[in-house]
Sequence to fold (1236 residues):
Amino acid sequence: MRRRVAVTINGTKHEHEVEPRLLLVQYIRDVAGLTGTHVGCDTSNCGACTVEVDGHSVKSCTMFAVQADGAQITTIEGLANGSTLHPLQQAFWDEHGLQCGFCTPGMIMAAKQLLERNPNPTEQEIRVGLEGNLCRCTGYHNIVKSIQSAAKVMAPGAERKAPAPVS
Amino acid sequence: MAISQMVGASIKRREDPRLVTGTGSYVDDISQTALVHMHVVRSSEAHARILGIETGRAKEADGVLAVLTGKDLKPEFGAPLPVTVCFVPDKKYPNHYPIAVDKVHYVGEPVAIVLASSRAAAEDAGERIEVKYQSLPAVVDIEKAIEKGAPILHEELGSNLSYDVKFAAGDIDAAFKEAEVTIKQRLIQQRLIPIAIEPRGVLADYKTFSNKLTVWSSTQIPHFVKVWLAVILGISESNVRVVAPEVGGGFGSKIRVYPEEILTALASRRLGRPVKWIEDRNENVKATHHGRDQIWDVEVAAKKDGTILGIRPTQWLNLGGYCSQFGTFQVLGMLVAQGAYKMKAFDGRAVGVFTNTTPTDAYRGAGRPEATYLIERVMDLVARETGIDPVEVRRKNFVRAEDQPFTTLLGLTYDSGDYTITLDKALEMVDYKSLRREQAEKRKQGKYIGIGLSTYIEICGLGPAAATQAATGVSLWGMSVVNVHFTGKATVIIGSSPHGQGHETTYAQVASDVLGIPVEDIDVQHGDTAIGPMGMDTYGSRSTALDGNAVHISAMKVQEKARKIAAHLLEAAEGDIVYEQGKAFVKGTPSKAVTIQEIAVAAFQTNRLPKGMEGGLEATTFFDPTNFVWPFGAHICVVEIDAETGATRILRYVAVDDCGTRINPMVVDGQLHGGIAQGIGQALFEGAVYDEAGQLRTGSLVDYLVPTAPDLPSFELSATVTPSPVNPLGTKGIGEAGTIASTPAVMNAIVDALEPFGVKDVSMPATPQKIWQLMHRNGGIKR
Amino acid sequence: MIPAAFDYVVPRTLPEAVAELVKHGQEAKVLAGGHSLIPLMKLRLSTPSFLVDIGRVGNLNYIREEDGHVAIGALTSHHDIEFSELLKNKLPLLTSAASQIGDPQVRNRGTIGGAAAHADPFGDFPACLLALDAEFKAVGPRGERSIAARDFFVDTFTSSLEPNEVLREIRIPTPPPGSRGTYLKFSRRSQDWAIVAVAAQVRVTGHEVTQVAVGLTGMGSRPIRASGVEQALRGKAGHDDELRAAAERAVEGTDPQQDLNGSPDYRRHLAQVLTRRALEQVTAHH
Fold:
């Protein structure tokens, strides 16, 4: 039996009839067509599927789309403002916080919540805040630097210099 | 030599804007109309005969287009999956087909495929398939597999022994006669699962009436996959195109012509529709090849003053259920098991054995981590035995700069490097003497810190044809095409197939320096067999040494032609032309220059060119160097052990590496960070565990422990630059060096910390329980 | 990766949810945060044909103090527990445990009711709730009943909830002023399940340990009260040697298993070490 799901993703309304067993990550990727959110495991360990649901970071592989009915969802595609990158995206670029890029969308979404809750984290707090996201390429070293760099720009009251648009 | 403006610059990567916005396309992001989804049913038995497969109920399920077994597909296999000689010409191996027919040899081997209109329908139907197995006794242990009476995987071979080969030089018996100190040690390389965060996936599209096959695959080797698809499917190679889209990590695990690449292509040909298969993680842990899994037994002959006379290593390799494509890549390790040291004799033996486990093959370092672990642990064992500081033992035995070019016992030539410089720098960074004092103080308080060294040399840049052609069947050249367009922008086609290494940026830097075209106007293309001549893809830290240099050479050829055109346009002699930062001018009159853009336009207007010169401004290079390249360095790890729980904390990790010319230091450092993390993973966290029946107990990321951010420290990196003499850029390789160096650095630190407890070796992963048990056997500290 | 198909209903009240469970019997499972159930379904290790999603039942998400108890709604997330000011003050044992469950994303979705009902012997809340003498309010077809913590956790993945009962609330007697609590968890990596963990709740009045409760995670098929430790320490002053001696008794009544992460011997040793460290923390002078 199919059920109606209505969600807003990155400000755009979506409404579909889906099977209850459709995972939220499959809805986002295959139904809404936003493939920036990735699947890296099947036991909720890797975090590559991290998105924001009603303001909380969530592993979208561990939710059914029907559970998200009515929710406001933000995915990686919703962070940039036109061609202007979000400070976290800019910082990951500046600090070489990615290599193959597969874990990156989920990592950035996890980092976003980390900084929203703790705008001035220590290195240890950053690392612990990322405990739900696996990266095999970077050893996390530059991911930490990226988040430290973004924190400076995103801190409340920080002098906000708009990052250069992507050419 | 042109002024280096881009080479050496840590510029931001061109790959990143699409990746940080989630707009890169990995294979699961690609679709085709009329797409069919494939689900693979895999063996739940480690060793069994297939008596029958019931597919009737599956065929009736909703959305199912076809269900095929090995019996159905067997007539279509034009050849088995490839196995290369790879340093062992006499190896015995079975034919390996993409799907089991009569027998299964490991849990995870494909036994049937379901083709359906959706992934869910295919998985649902897969549940309805019943495979009737006749279980056979399984063997997972190397030593048990070659015992008399062991269950034999491939009956036609008569035993589970694939090869037993010597790598020997010098008089080892004399060395042991001369020895004042002898050591015997078993060192175990536990099995690892590579776990690239993107599992594998394939989309195969066979167009019936044009007889053309296009395959998108999450692979490191699109060019090799193309050749083998043509051979196995019996299609003309000119009709096959393989594309590696964005690939989410490989680390060696995607260097293989995999069954699913063949199966999707066959299915697509049968159905006349595109077929997609995406690997779940629980498949990946069984179906994508594993790494390491070797036992090394070593005997060491040394003198009381710490001089190493000779070593006798025996390497027992667990090949798994089949001989994978390289299947003996790990034997490459034997070639560098001598390490950065001189010695008189080397008596090596490598034995490859089949067991009922997932096949093993290349995983970051592919043999060199194993060899470096061996020799770096040997250096510390000798230090312990002789009472000499491990730093001094290394100094004593180092191949020195003035000894180079230095021919090793097995005939390789180390050509560049002063290993004492990197060692001294690393010692300075940790303040070694103070650390030793601190260690002594802490021991009095019942606190245990340890200092571990790893002074490695590594062989990469695979490889010169002279050395590798016999091993792999082709010359592993570096390939590039540099093509300057009408408007003076350029496209560079490379033979490497990056999956995170940043080649779109670094090779643009190389070309930019030679041509003077800005980096942003140079587009680097890769990973698509349709766009250029055959490249040899990416593994073995080869790309910068080979394809990167091929880019430089092609760009120099283009520059050379540009000079000729400029001379003609400026009515000057070729010898008088200077080419600098994208402009050509007569020596002494830089104000009267022609730009590369103007030269490019002329190249498209042949009647403005010198008589006899063809139009166009492009060049192709197949670069075959005369030697491998030899990065080296010194890593030092400082750990603290919690005496009550056995937990290890890394206090500091210092690395000084020399990979020759660094095109983009930021990218180089990133490779080191990731490599070191994986080496620490092997030392402290990871290990694939099979039970006696051949079931993988560490079958998910809950149990297979990939390090997370809070488990790792930040790394302190420094570098020296000793250019390689065998390529124009002077570059070596760095992709695997971090992993090669780090595992022994960490393990040496742990063994060092536990010295008061009489501990001489700790097996990997060094779990808290293991360490605690070692500390407390025999009642605790031995003084 | 794709679960087997199932039918799905979203009741708005607990009685509705219970009615659905009664209607569908064995074939139905409760879905709350889903972080225990959905992974099992994705691997097809669990294939319920009916899911009752209680995620939208009202009035199950709260933390409040009333009548000398702290009452926590069954659908309160681990995150909300971790950051509750009230709990930081009154029940720091719970906030300490919550902060160590899984990872931040998991904590946003996981619920205390779900965790309790799942009864994983390696879960973190059960040992805490046992140490705090919590009471579990469950709603079933015959109405509501109260289950004491010592009767709630029965065996591995088995609570004493009936198949058609749903947890509504967990009530904990408010510890008296001066009480302290902490949760110490030992694992290989940060995001991992505990190998062994210890929940310690203590009150020192003057120079006497007047209240002490210790719960153990990972030392048996269900969470265990280390009553030997409690006996040894109650009434003592809390000196180091007394803590050490008490902690030695952490192994009494335990039955730790052998698995990939540890042997029974090692687990017993860890239980003693962690118990001593936890007691040191909660008895240390400010």
Observations:
- The two ends of chain B are 62 Å apart (CA to CA).
- The first strand of chain B starts at residue 36 and ends at 42.
